[in-house]
Every structure is written in structure tokens, then in C-alpha cells.
Design a protein that fits this description.
This protein has helices at 62-74, 100-114, 124-140, 147-167, 230-239, 262-269, 335-338, 359-366; strands spanning 5-7, 12-14, 43-44, 53-57, 78-84, 118-122, 175-178, 183-188, 193-198, 221-222, 275-279, 284-288, 315-321, 326-331, 339-352, 371-374, 382-390, 395-405, 412-417, 420-427. Helices cover 22% and strands 28% of the residues. Bound molecules: adenosine-5'-triphosphate (ATP).
């Protein structure tokens, strides 16, 4: 099968056929691999020693395939691991696009192509009890949770780390978990600890989803893809003719086929909990079937009296009163109802990604304008202007530089200093 390798100035090209076994290429170096960029000399990208155990977390996507390629080509103790976190038949009523078995088959094929062993682990129970059920519970109570953040915390870097600790217990070699996330974990030479940073390629930055991953494991994790752009990764995959080179990027939660159908999906699991639809003046205009059935900014579905100046116009859902189980609607042009520059955080949910960080350090840094935050992934970060605390309610008000749309209780606010993640908490 393997025919001929032609080496060009920078890239590798294969004249015909596919690479059957990567071991045949081990002696050829590729200058694109392990090319790391750090914000300054204080931080560096750590790499394993040659005898270390390296586990590549493989989803069957192109990013984790290229990650595996880089390490398989340069290290000897490399293996792939695939997590099965849900099974399609568990999800009633939804037109599921889960492809667990075919993804696993592709991971096996790619590991075969790279000549590394791989295994499949089943973390369905953990996903169900620690991510899926809490997500339903949050929606049921009117919050807008982010299950991807929970999945990283409890499964991809929770159960997985527990599994690897057991697997390598008693072995003298250090082990590493390497993933294909668009984020960076860099070693801070001053504190001898690793920190999480945004990816260079902002269009794909996934650091927001990693805001709750356990900070004590960062020294065992590598995210090389955060140093590259997606086109660079696709180029590498193409040049090596990786089996996954043309695979499209995955889109959100696999068990829901279309984002638009997410409400129908939730209705399958959450019993109705009718409540009133009200305007800010307290007037009742209709009923909703559950707070989860509405998103802030969506059309209210109420035909308001167009002859009445006070109520004419288009009305949208602007807020949820969780205690009263009410949906609040506001006229579309009521900017103050939809755009806010103060975000209220529940401090009891706050998690410092940097163990020795605290609020007074953050406050000192506010004046230089480097403290910024995001309330959703891929959002242009907002500069934090001020933070005030209400210690009796265990809340903090984070004031940002501009009014932004659609702040919802249950979302996570992630706090950064420049590109480095400091911590995160849940909006209340
Ligand atoms: N089922 C899985 N098994 C093992 N690792 C996974 C799995 N799903 C995701 N990962 C890891 O998490 C990273 C980011 O996940 P994400 O869902 O964004 O990836 P993807 O878009 O499906 O695939 P890829 O990032 O590999 O192109 C993956 O690159 C991979 O390292």
C-alpha cells in the first residue's frame, strides 16, 4: 500500500496511496510540529520526556487526529483513547445524530494508520449523572446551563483523569493526556504551575468551555492545537492523507440533531410547569409551559393590542423570574431590558483556575484594563471596569465596558487576564 515519500521544503507529500503505517515515517522531521508560541518568556509549552506515557484523547475529528500524528511521529509510548459518553438509544424522541460506534471505528482506523494502540472507555454513567441530569434540572428551574463546561469538568478531565491515574499507578514514567482543544496550557516558570490560555486562533478558541476543569491536573495535560489555526491543521491532515482530513467540525451536543429543536428535546424530559407571561408592569398576558421553553430575545408569541400606545409593537422575552415562575416580556426597542453592562455572579459557584488567585489581586489589575470576561464561547471579550461585592448574598456585580445582549441566569462568566484564564462562576 505504501508507495513513496516525497519531501518538499516544508511539507511532506505522498505521491500515491495512503500511509499504511506511520512508523515508516518516524525518521522524517516536520518543522511544523511542536512549533509553539507563548505570550512572553515567563511561559513555556512543556513537552513530555522521551520515555513518558502519552495518551491522546481522540474524538475521531481532524484536530485530535493531527494531535495524535504529531506525537506518534515523535514519541514511542503513545496510545489513543476514545470515550463513549452517551448512547443514542438513551435519548427519546430526538432525531439523534450520535455516531458513537462509527466514531470509534474511525478512531481505530486512524490509530491503525498511525500505528499506535487505542482503547475505548465507557463514561456514560458519569455523563448521565454529572452532566445530563444536572443540565435538565437547571433548565427545569429556569436557568441556562452549559453542559459542555460540565462535560469537561466531570468527564473529559474528571473521570478520564481518575481512569488514567489508576491505569498508570505504580509506573515510574510520567503520564500525559493530550487533547485536540483549541486552547493552550503553558507552564509558568515563576510559579512552577501550568495555566490555561486562549487559543491563538480566536475563531475556534475553546478556553471558555474549559473554565471549570480541575486546576490541579494542568501539569499533566497538553493542548498543542491551541498554537495553530484550523487551516494549518487541515493542511497537515491533508499532507499526511489522514483518514479524517475532510471530516467536518462537530457541532454542539450530538444528541440533539438541530439547535432549533432543543426545546422539543427538553420537552421530552421535563414535565410541564405552566406559569404566567407578564410585562414589567405586572400585567398578565398569557401562559408558558415551562421557563426552559423560552430563550431571552425570542418572540413572545403574544398578540399585543396594537391600538394601545403602551403595548403596541413587537414584544420579546426579556427575562425570567425564577422564583415566581414567570416569563417577562419587553418591547423590542426597550434597550435597557435586553442590554446590560452589570453581570451578577453567584460567588458560591466561583472557581479559581489559578489556585493562589483572589479578588483583591483581580481588583488591583482592573486599572490597567487587562481583566476581561466572556459569558459565552467565541464572544468578543469585554473589559471589566469594576467589581462590587454583596457578601450577605454571596454575590458580585461585574461591570463591563459596554451593554451586551442576552445575559441569562445559569450561564458561566469566565474571567481572564489578557489571554490567561483566572476563574469562572455562574450568573444569577
Ligand atoms: N469521545 C471522545 N473521546 C475522546 N476524546 C474526545 C472525545 N470527544 C472530544 N474529545 C477530545 O476533546 C477535544 C475537543 O473536543 P471537540 O468536541 O471540540 O472535538 P471534535 O470537534 O469532535 O473533534 P476534534 O477536536 O478532534 O476535531 C478533541 O480534540 C479530543 O481531544
Amino acid at each position: 500500500m505504501f508507495k513513496k515519500v516525497v519531501i518538499t521544503t516544508q511539507k511532506l507529500q505522498f505521491s500515491t496511496g495512503q500511509i499504511s503505517k506511520l512508523s515508516q515515517l518516524r525518521s522524517i522531521s516536520d518543522s511544523r510540529f511542536f512549533k509553539f508560541k507563548t505570550p512572553n518568556d515567563r511561559y513555556k509549552q512543556i513537552l513530555p520526556d522521551k520515555d513518558d506515557e502519552i495518551v491522546i484523547s481522540m474524538s475521531s475529528g481532524v484536530d485530535s487526529s493531527v494531535t495524535a500524528l504529531m506525537f506518534a511521529k515523535n514519541y514511542k509510548n503513545v496510545r489513543g483513547i476514545f470515550m463513549a459518553n452517551w448512547s443514542p438509544d438513551k435519548f427519546v424522541g430526538s432525531n439523534s445524530t450520535c455516531t458513537i460506534d462509527s466514531d470509534w471505528l474511525q478512531v481505530r482506523e486512524i490509530c491503525n494508520q498511525l500505528n499506535i494502540p487505542c482503547e475505548r472507555v465507557n463514561f456514560e454513567k458519569e455523563y448521565w449523572t454529572q452532566v445530563f441530569e444536572p443540565m435538565l434540572d437547571q433548565y427545569q428551574h429556569g436557568y441556562t446551563p452549559n453542559p459542555d463546561i460540565g462535560c469537561n469538568k466531570y468527564v473529559k478531565f474528571g473521570k478520564m483523569i481518575e481512569y488514567l491515574n489508576k491505569l498508570f499507578s505504580g509506573k515510574s514514567n510520567k503520564w500525559w493526556l493530550v487533547t485536540g482543544h483549541y486552547a493552550k496550557i503553558l507552564y509558568d516558570k515563576e510559579t512552577n504551575q501550568s495555566r490555561l490560555f486562549r487559543a491563538d486562533y480566536k475563531k475556534k478558541d475553546q478556553s471558555y468551555y474549559l473554565t471549570s476543569m480541575p486546576n490541579n491536573i494542568l501539569n499533566n495535560i497538553i493542548m498543542p492545537i491551541g498554537h495553530y489555526t484550523k487551516p494549518e491543521i487541515r493542511d497537515i491532515a491533508n499532507d499526511y492523507n489522514l483518514l479524517t482530513k475532510d471530516k467536518p467540525d462537530s457541532q454542539g451536543l450530538c444528541f440533539v440533531s438541530q439547535v432549533g429543536k432543543f426545546k422539543d428535546f427538553l420537552n421530552e424530559y421535563i414535565p410541564p410547569n405552566p406559569g404566567n407571561i407578564v410585562t414589567k408592569d405586572g400585567k398578565i398576558w398569557g401562559k408558558h409551559q415551562g421557563l426552559w421553553s423560552a430563550t431571552i430575545g425570542q418572540k413572545s408569541g403574544i398578540s399585543m393590542p396594537q391600538g394601545d400606545n403602551k403595548y403596541k409593537g413587537v414584544w420579546l422575552v426579556s427575562d425570567k423570574n425564577i422564583e415566581k415562575n414567570e416569563l417577562i416580556i419587553s418591547r423590542k426597542d426597550d434597550k435597557d431590558a435586553f442590554y446590560k453592562d452589570i453581570i451578577n455572579i453567584n460567588l458560591s459557584t466561583w472557581y479559581w483556575m489559578i489556585p493562589d488567585m483572589n479578588w483583591s489581586i483581580v481588583e488591583k489589575n482592573l486599572i490597567d484594563g487587562t481583566i476581561n470576561c466572556q459569558i459565552r464561547s467565541l464572544q468578543i471579550p469585554n473589559i471589566v471596569k469594576n467589581i462590587t461585592f454583596n457578601t450577605t448574598n454571596s454575590n458580585a456585580n461585574i461591570q463591563i465596558n459596554e451593554k451586551i445582549f442576552g445575559i441569562a441566569a445559569g450561564q458561566t462568566l469566565a474571567l481572564y487576564k489578557d489571554e490567561m484564564l483566572l476563574g469562572s462562576g455562574v450568573i444569577c
